Amino acid sequence: MISAMAEPKKGDEFKPGDMCSRSGIYRVVHDVEHKIEHEVTVIHGKPFPPCRHCGQHPRFILERAAQHILSNEWFSEPPPSNRYRTVSVRGQRPPK
Ligand SMILES: [Zn+2]
Description:
By secondary structure, the chain is an all-beta fold. It has a domain at 13-69. It has strands at residues 13-14, 24-29, 38-42, 59-65. It has a four-stranded antiparallel β-sheet with strand order 1-4-2-3, with no helix packed on it. Zinc ion is lined by residues 30-31, 34-35, 51, 53-54, 58.
C-alpha cells in the first residue's frame, strides 16, 4: 500500500479503487488469462477503474508521470480572479 502523502514515482503499483494522484502513463497487468500487459494514460483525481473482464485483478504500474495539460499553469483555465482579462478563449458567444 502506498502512502497517500508520498508522490507516486516510477514503478509504484496501484489497484482498482486506489485514487490516482499523479497523471501519467501506467502499465496495466491483467489476469494472465485475460490480456497481456499494455499501457494507458490515467488522469489524476479519479480512482483507477476495475477491468470489465477481470474485475479487481489489474495492477497499474506508473511508467512515466506526465502532468495533465489542464493542471499546467499555462494551459489551465484562468482562476476567477483573473476573469477581468476577458479573452474569448473558447470562441463561445451567446446565440442571437
Ligand atoms: Zn482485465
